[in-house]
Amino acid sequence: MRDVSSEEIVSGSVPRVLVVLAAPLVAQNFALVAQSVVDLFWVGRLGSTAVAAVGLASVVGALALVPFYAFFTGTQVVTSQRVGADDPAAARRVPFTAAAMAVALAVVVGAALVLVADPVVALFTGDATVATLGANYLTAYALAVVTIAASDTLEGGFTGWGDTRAALYINLTAIVVNVVADPLLILGWGPFPRLELFGAALATAIGYGVGAALALGLAARGREGFVLTHTAVWPHLDTAREVVEVGLPVAGQNGGRQLARLGMIWVVSTVGGPAGLAAYHIGAQVATVAFVPAQGVAGAATSVVGQNLGADQPARAKRATWTAVGLAAVALAVFGALQWVAPGPIARVFVPDLSGASLSDAVLYLQILAVGYPALGAIYTLEAGFNGARRTTVSMYSTLCQYWLVRLPVAAVGGFVLAAGVAAPFWAVTLSNVAAAGWLAVYFYRSTTREMLARASDDAASSAD
């Protein structure tokens, strides 16, 4: 079923456990990147206005998903600690209780999204066509909010259990269904109606709905102790409270990050114009690919840390965190070196006809980003160490400081006061990443020398009783 057992997670080779657990998560994240590329390809058949509308609506959709990070992360952390404490009955309750809460909230959020789609999109654009198309996309995306909430929360349960292959199967199924449905619903191939952007969002909703159904099917069949039982499906109030308590700071972290990104887009657009904004978006897409190894290792590290703390092995949890930091930093350093050497060809992979100021700005940004890639690897994995210990508030405060106290002020001062042009916000991104990696590393080192993980282990044991 998988290549590492719960016993190996708490007693086997730490590097091997991290690599084996991370591999399916890395594959899954690469598939998600590929899904975005395919979605863009089919939407692009409708013209540049449609692409602009989806780009705008996607930001609003990402904000609508912010509350659900509480369930995604909370489910993984609490499940992993229950498994590590050898309490499978309590561990089984976590994903199903969290999924029930997530779906109930998603229905409310989805309904609200339908009601506010038109005025919210109109706030960000003066183009009536873009606003109408964006609102159409968000209307169908309201259904996707529900299916994503169900699929990703259940997936968090499998990941917390250490069964990252099941998580991969769930995501791949959702992605494949989405990719197949895209041309059918966007362009109206065969007997299907031509729904254009409404169809693009509907394809996403259907894909994640099938993924959620597969997750329930795998649980009903049973995998490595994660089994759908009569007692597990009934929502458990204390478990629900615990999941929200652990995961809520992560929702705040992502909300702060998304809002700050809107601010960065405004700064870049103001000081760099269309060329700078194009370069910024290209850099963001390239960075999304570069992040994949770090995200996979971080996801694995969260489960490994959680299970070892549940098994009362804080020293091993600490070693797992630092090992993950090393793996992620090295992986991103390699990617960064390649990006530094060949920024032009990399940029043209995303925009083949890129030229002029857009090309020169993209080259500049990609090289600046490459400098900070090892720091990004450290950020993801150090946050995983804190998250696995239920110290999710550390990740939240770190991200808020990274974006609001370093990135945005440096970008604004450099761009507007010092008149450094588009280079200012570009360097602001890398400088904020390096700063965040530094303070997280120092704080994790100091916290672990003061027995933070030992206390987290005691808390995990007491909450499992």
What would you note in describing this structure?
The chain is an all-alpha fold and 465 residues long. The protein folds into two domains: 1-14 and 21-235, no CATH class; 246-465, no CATH class. Helix content is 86%, strand content 0%. The protein contains 17 helices and no strands. Helix 12 (343-350) crosses helix 13 and helix 14 runs parallel beside helix 16. It is globular, with a radius of gyration of 22 Å. It starts with 5 loop residues before the first helix and ends with a helix.
Task: Give the % helix.
Answer: over 70%
What's the structural domain tally?
A: 2
- Mean pLDDT metric: 86
Helix and strand element order: HHHHHHHHHHHHHHHHH
Tell me briefly what this model is:
The protein is globular, with a radius of gyration of 22 Å. It is mainly alpha-helical. It contains 17 helices and no strands.
Q: What is the strand and helix layout of this fold?
A:
Blueprint: H1 6-11, H2 14-44, H3 48-64, H4 69-84, H5 88-124, H6 128-161, H7 164-186, H8 196-221, H9 230-233, H10 237-310, H11 314-341, H12 343-350, H13 356-371, H14 373-388, H15 392-417, H16 423-449, H17 452-464
